[in-house]
Write a structure and sequence with these properties.
Layout lengths: L1 H19 L6 E7 L18 H9 L1 E3 L2 E2 L5 H10 L3 H4 L19 H7 L3 E6 L6 H7 L2 E3 L3 H14 L5 E3 L2 E6 L7 H15 L6 E7 L6 E4 L26 H8 L4 H7 L2 H28 L6 E7 L4 E2 L5 E2 L5 H4 L3 E4 L8 E3 L3 E2 L3 H8 L14 H5 L9 E4 L5 E4 L3 E5 L5 E5 L17 H9 L39
Parallel strand pairs: 1-8, 1-10, 2-14, 3-15, 4-5, 4-8, 7-9
Antiparallel strand pairs: 2-13, 6-7, 10-13, 11-12, 16-17, 17-18, 18-19
Helix pairs in contact: 2-11, 8-11
C-alpha cells in the first residue's frame, strides 16, 4: 500500500510539471544571496538564526538540502551559474582573474539565453561579474550595486564609528542607526517591488535580484542585531585537533586567510558570529519584501522562484573563518525552487546537486530549446521525485586541480598534491574523521577517484600568482596583532 501511494504521488507530480508547459511560459524570479551558508532555519545550520522568509519559501517549494557551489568563492561560483559550466572547464578558479568574457567570449549567459528566446530580462544587485557590453547582451535592464550607495554607507561608518563595532584583521561589523533602504539591499528590494507591481510586461520575464549581505562588512541596521546577544550566542562545535588527520595543503587552506585560533585570541568569536547572524536576518527580511511583492503582483500565479547562495561560510568550523575551502561549511548552500501556484512540489531532496544545474533546470522548466553547451544537469527529475537518485556527485573546485566530490553519503576531497580526505557525512557531519587512509573505505575512495576531472582547464585571463593554494595568501591584507576596537551592542 505504501509503495502504491508513493508511486501515485510521483505520477501526480509528473502530471503537475507537465501541465506547467501547457499554458504560457512562466516567469522566473532569480534571487542570489552572497556568502549565505547553512545558517538558515530550514537547513538547521545554527539554532539561533532567524530566517522566516527563506523558511517559508522552503515550505512552499523544493528544498535541495545537499546543494553545493561549483567553487567556494564569489566570482568563479557566480561565473559557473551564469555560464552553466564548471571552473575545471572554463579555467576561472579565483576572484582575481577578472571578467570571464575575456576568456569565454562565445559563452551565452543564463539571462542572455532567456532573452534570445523571447523573455524580458532585468536585474539589480550582485549577480555575477560581467562587462558593460556583457550586461547589455544579457539584460534589457540591469542596475549593478550602486557605488554611491556603498560609498555613503562606508562614509557613515567612518564618520560615526558605531557603538558595537568589532574589528579584527579583515572582518568588521556592527549595528548602524539607519533605515533599511539606506542599505544597498534595501534599495534593491525596493527596485524589485516596483518592477513586480508597476512594470507592464508584454512578454514573460527573467528577473535577477542580487542580495549582498551577509557578505562582509557585517554592518546592518541596529534592529537586526537586537535578537542576537553575543553572550547568549551558541558557538559552532570546534575540535581542537581537527586538522591532525589532513595534509599540509589542507592546513594551508585552513590557516591561509583567517584561522580559528587567532579569532579565539581576539576574544571576538561570539560578537563576530552575532554580527553574521544579524546580517543573515537582514538579508532574509529583504528577500521577504521581494517575495511579498510577488505574491501581491499580477505575476503571483505564473512565476518560478529560485533562491541560491554563491557559497557557504566558515565561522570557526574546521579551524577556519570565511569561505575558500573544500569542506562542507564552505561548499554547502541554500537552494530552493518554487514552481508557480498550482504546480508547487513541496519536498526536500537529499540528493547532491550543484548550482551549475540551475541553468539547464530553468531552460527545462520554461520549455526553452536545450542548450547543449552546458555542463550541469536538469534537476526536474528531483522536482518530480525528490528521492530519485542523482546521476553523479556534485563537483566543487578550489583552485587548479583541487576538487571535492559530494554524494548523498560521502564527501571526498582530492588536492593537487595527490592527498585525499573522505568523510562519511551521515556519521560525521562535522568532518572530524578523515577516512581516506582507512582500508575499509578503499572501495569508496576508488569509486570517488573515478569521478575526478581528467583534464582541468588551465587558469584563464588575468590570473596572477602561483597555481597552488599559497596564492590566496596574497589576496588579503593579512595583519596579525592588530588592535581591536570593540564595545558591546
Amino acid at each position: 500500500m505504501k509503495k502504491s501511494l508513493i508511486s501515485f504521488v510521483v505520477l501526480l507530480s509528473s502530471l503537475c510539471l507537465s501541465s506547467l508547459h501547457a499554458g504560457e511560459r512562466p516567469n522566473v524570479l532569480f534571487i542570489a544571496v552572497d556568502d549565505l551558508n547553512d545558517y538558515v532555519g530550514c537547513l538547521g545550520g545554527h539554532k539561533d538564526t532567524l530566517t522566516p522568509n527563506i523558511d517559508r519559501l522552503a515550505q512552499e517549494g523544493t528544498l535541495f538540502s545537499n546543494a553545493h557551489c561549483a567553487a567556494p568563492l564569489c566570482s568563479p561560483s557566480r561565473i559557473s551559474v551564469a555560464t552553466g559550466k564548471y571552473p575545471k572547464n572554463t579555467g576561472y578558479y579565483m576572484n582575481s582573474q577578472g571578467n570571464f568574457r575575456q576568456g569565454l567570449s562565445a559563452v551565452t549567459t543564463l539571462p542572455e539565453y532567456f532573452r534570445s528566446n523571447g523573455y524580458t530580462t532585468l536585474g539589480r544587485g550582485k549577480l555575477w561579474p560581467d562587462t558593460p557590453v556583457g550586461f547589455k547582451k544579457s539584460f534589457d535592464e540591469y542596475m549593478k550595486v550602486n557605488k554611491k550607495e556603498v560609498g555613503n554607507i562606508n562614509k557613515y561608518i567612518f564618520n560615526n564609528g558605531p557603538k558595537g563595532r568589532f574589528k579584527e584583521w579583515v572582518l568588521d561589523g556592527g549595528p548602524l542607526d539607519i533605515e533599511d533602504e539606506q542599505m544597498v539591499d534595501g534599495s534593491t528590494a525596493k527596485w524589485a517591488e516596483a518592477r513586480l507591481n508597476n512594470f507592464k510586461f508584454n512578454k514573460p520575464f527573467f528577473m535577477g535580484v542580487g542580495i549582498f549581505r551577509p557578505h562582509i562588512d557585517w554592518f546592518v541596521p541596529r534592529k537586526y542585531f537586537k535578537s542576537f546577544d553575543p553572550e547568549k550566542i551558541s558557538l559552532p562545535m570546534v575540535k581542537k585537533d581537527d586538522l591532525a588527520d589532513v595534509s599540509e595543503i589542507a592546513k594551508e587552506i585552513a590557516n591561509g586567510v583567517f584561522d580559528e585560533e587567532a579569532m579565539e585570541r581576539s576574544g571576538q568569536r561570539k560578537v563576530a558570529l552575532a554580527a553574521y547572524l544579524a546580517c543573515v536576518h537582514f538579508a532574509d527580511a529583504m528577500i521577504g519584501r521581494v517575495l511579498n511583492a510577488l505574491e501581491k503582483s499580477p505575476h503571483a500565479n505564473n512565476t518560478i522562484v529560485v533562491l541560491w547562495s554563491d557559497h557557504g561560510y566558515h565561522l570557526g568550523e574546521k579551524q577556519h573563518w570565511r569561505k575558500m575551502t573544500l569542506w562542507e561549511d564552505a561548499t554547502r548552500v541554500p537552494m530552493i525552487i518554487k514552481l508557480p501556484k498550482g504546480h508547487e512540489q513541496v519536498a526536500t531532496s537529499r540528493q547532491p546537486v550543484s548550482l551549475v544545474d540551475l541553468y539547464p533546470t530553468l531552460v527545462d522548466l520554461c520549455s526553452l530549446p536545450k542548450n547543449e553547451a552546458l555542463d550541469g544537469q536538469s534537476v526536474v527529475s528531483l522536482l518530480k521525485n525528490p528521492n530519485a537518485k542523482s546521476k553523479k556527485p556534485a563537483l566543487i573546485s578550489y583552485g587548479f586541480k583541487n576538487h571535492c566530490l559530494r554524494t548523498e553519503d560521502f564527501s571526498f576531497i582530492h588536492y593537487s598534491d595527490g592527498s585525499c580526505e573522505l568523510y562519511d557525512m551521515n556519521k560525521d557531519p562535522h568532518q572530524w574523521t578523515n577516512l581516506a587512509a582507512n582500508p575499509e573505505y578503499q572501495n569508496v575512495v576508488d569509486e570517488m577517484k573515478s569521478y575526478l576531472p581528467k583534464d582541468d582547464e588551465p587558469y584563464k585571463a588575468n590570473h596572477k600568482g602561483n597555481s597552488n593554494i599559497k596564492m590566496w595568501h596574497e589576496t588579503f591584507d593579512y595583519i596579525k596583532g592588530r588592535d581591536i576596537d570593540f564595545a558591546d551592542w
